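Thread: Modeling a multi-component assembly for a lab meeting

Hi all, long-time lurker, first post. My supervisor asked me to bring a structural picture of a complex we are working on to next week's group meeting, and I have zero experience with this. I have the sequence lines for every component (638 residues in total). Could someone generate the structure of the whole assembly? Inputs are pasted exactly as I received them:
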Amino acid sequence: MRFLAVVVLFILVGCRPLENTGQAATGTEGGVRVSLELVGPPAVGPAEVRVYLLGGDNKAVTDATVTVTGTMTHAGMEPIIAQAVPAEGGLYRTEDFAFDMAGDWLLEADVTLPDGGEVTDEQAVTVPGG
Amino acid sequence: MNRLHRPAWPRQPRGPDLLRLPGLRRFFRWRYARLVFQLPLLLLAVFVVVDGLTGDQLAPRNLATTTLWLHYRGLVVIALALLGNAFCAACPLLLTRGLSRRLERLLPRKLSWPKLLKNKYLVITLLLLFFLSYEVFDLWASPWLTAWLVIGYFAGVLVVDTLFPAGTFCRYVCPLGNFNFAFATASPTQIAAVDPDVCSGCRDKPCLHGRESYPEPSQAQGQAAFIPLSSIQNANGQGFFPGCETDLMVPTVVSNMDCTLCMNCVRACPYDNVALTVRAPGLEWTRAPWAKRGGFAAMLLGILLTFWGLLNAVAMTGPYYRGAEWLATVLGTRNEALLLILIFAAVTLSGLALTTAMSLLADRLGGVNNSAKSTPKAALMRWGYVLLPLGFGFWAAHYLFHFLTGALSIVPVTQHFFEFWGSAVDPNWRLSRLVPTRWLFPIGAGFVSVYSLLAVWVAFRIALRDFGKRGVLALWPPLLFILAFAAFSLLVLAQPMEMRGTIFGPTF
Ligand code: SF4
Ligand code: SF4
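Re: Modeling a multi-component assembly
Sure thing. I ran the full set together rather than chain by chain. Output:
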């Protein structure tokens, strides 16, 4: 019982809300840098999201798997998930990504590198209404 | 049975008794029946607190925000519309009782709840604070704050229940419970006496005061009136059976206001004379039930909830954000809390003013010219019931929108919870909608339309009841009000939703 009380106290006192980082710094893993960019002003409808991957040696990473996820801040909203396809020089872009509602979105790029390593980047976006 | 006197009990609905369904009466007479519903919700509350405090802080990926702001609210309105106040019946907060009983032993005696607070004004204030905090702190977007809200709620119940008599929290403090009470008036069921004549001869009124039953009087502990086991019809065990904690006596129940559907009365009645009666949804609105109990404060609660319901939904649409931007520019401030207070004040005051004007005009047209009778309070106590179906219809449409949009997300969110704690599960985030998006507006509009028609029926019954033939004239202001409210509701539902965290920028 006392142990339980200590655990509960630990959870209550020790926890702080984990901040979502918003305009996040570029993610890195083993020297690989990833950065995510929304092309053009945010608006309801199709949007292009670009993800840049640069290795530690400043060379483009070309054969990674890049998934872009858009999630709203309200519970129950289905996220928009799209694969970003490689274009030239470490650039990956989405072809079928669309904001289906105005409001606050968190854009995330989840990258699986050729060696199995993972890097992520995220960015907060407010999509204005019509 | 000793028939003492025959009080004139108020008219209660006489529909079918749901407790006659096979096994139900026996189940609800069982001492631990409520626990069966409370324990799963307690378990859920534990998950909510743990995930809210320690889990992924993105609202759509957290159990706290998903279960509370999506499932709880959606299921509450479904239960209220189809059955009754099921969520108060299953409320896990009252499981703090064991602890509060221990704590109260440390006190010299229980305090009595101040007379000044024996009404719904504190509840109205707390609800206003809750709705304001909901917007200012974006509670719906914060698992962490949502978890603290749950913890605060448990702590609040514990404190109030320890210091004051049981039932005080439910009746005079709980904002969620009182939301349910106000809109359980729309429900198609109600607690009633099976046979009021039996109640006339019932001396101790155990449904209200509780009873103790043992084979021998010497076993009684003195907690309530002793009724020997041999006198109990369909005996349901021995011991102490508490009565109604919110002070309702079964044969006098004319409203679902204050009824938590705890079924204490069903268990305590020695004559097994309590029914869960089916009635026309909202029947009580036509019978002025709060004239005797609840009074003006209860009416104010219903009216304000109706307008706050509109604001709660409007605050997720583009025109609201543009209006707020305009207000911010005019006032030269970017202080969101200040702007929200002003917006809430404007909606509250204009809602009250409109309802009062409608009610006074209807009274005048109905022939109430005597200034002593034609007070705003008297007029609101007559016509205010018309707003309850409107309010419930709109809250239901709004909450169902969210529920139907994301009900299935409980699956990936639960998967994510276990993934977060190291289990090898891959959440299927594609699970979300319960119905296609194109159905959402028709469903919401359907709710608004049905409850607007119910409001018309209520207005019609009130007009005929109080004004006879002149009721045809008195009916016009409420009818125009209902039409305007319904049109505005549909307009709001038709707006593309804009889920912004704050007026001026993202939540993150
Ligand atoms: S419901 Fe039962 S306990 Fe209550 S007054 Fe009637 S007979 Fe008595
Ligand atoms: S005991 Fe009171 S609150 Fe509980 S079901 Fe009966 S009337 Fe309702």
